[in-house]
Amino acid sequence: MPEFTARFATAAETDQWDILVTANPNGGNLLQSAAFAAVKKNYGWTPQFVVIEGAGYVSYNLVLEKSYPLLGRLWYLVKGPDTTVLADIPAMTQALRVFSKRAGLNVFAVKIEPDIIACDEATTVLSGAGFIKMPNLQPNDSTALLDISPEPQQLLRNLQSRGRNAVRRAIREEVEVVRMEPDETTMRTMYELMLGTIAAKSNTQARKYEYYKQFWSEFASRGQGRFYFVFEDGVASVGAFVVNYGRKATYKDGGSLQKRSQYGDSHLVQWVAINDMKELGALEYDLCGTPPADQLKDTTHPYHGLGLFKTSFSKTVTDFVGCWELPFAPLRYKIWTTVAERIARQVYVRRTGDRFY
């Protein structure tokens, strides 16, 4: 098994965090970014910037931390550890265990969700290393990914016929996509469109406006996020917020009026965003959230309606391994899973009205 070591990032590395993360083996992820760390800092987490070194590469990982009396610290590697090698994950997390013990950090468990494609081998490796499968937390643990490296005409031809025809019709009918400034009016409008879409097409629940406002502001202020809108009769009918982070762009948030007349408007928003992201250097476009591949036709799945739209761009759904936990202190972890986590969630939700994770 390869050997790794772990440490906290230096001040110089933290200052260059996004540059280092996007140079990771897997190209990084927007949920490992400095912007996301700034958001989660205001929502119950302490961001830690951790470097894992060894086996010929360095991996920079955002760790979200929560501390609990008597139990110690819970570490959550959002979309990490960043590696392309499944077999390296047990050794990387062992490095975190050794680092925690030597530094007296008192971490009782680590939660991971690496962007490794789900398969029997992945389940065998992670289970064999003592990891415990947990419910997935991120919407794009199953998602539609689109290769946007081809030139625009070939890229358009590569879309699924439903998406390609919608884009072409919207262009013929001169639907206009507007790039909007990240101000209060834009964000309020975006949020209202999201609420309408979630109510109509999903049984999930949106976070509070203040969370999205900070999320959008953090990414937009760093030049890593853009708003796109379509209007009908002066009223916003489609909206999207798209993040460009390294070689991957992500359709993070979106919404639309359920009754509108411009055919293909939501598809054209994506097409314009895709081409903008391509110009910024992205090679892949994550449509961020579908049902798992084997549940695409399940009309009861909370992402069914969203999945129909997103798979009109890329028919193939990619399932990642999702969320797993590894106990560092088995007794304290047992207390956490049997009673403490439930109490912590209830207290946090009651106090803030927001999600725990």
Automatic annotation (TrEMBL):
Keyword Flavoprotein carried by entry: no
SUPFAM superfamilies: Acyl-CoA N-acyltransferases (Nat) (SSF55729)
UniProtKB keywords: Acyltransferase, Cell shape, Cell wall biogenesis/degradation, Peptidoglycan synthesis, Transferase
Pfam family, one: FemAB
Similarity section: Belongs to the FemABX family.
Record keyword Plastid present: no
The name this protein goes by in its record: Lipid II:glycine glycyltransferase FemX
Positions in coiled-coil regions: none
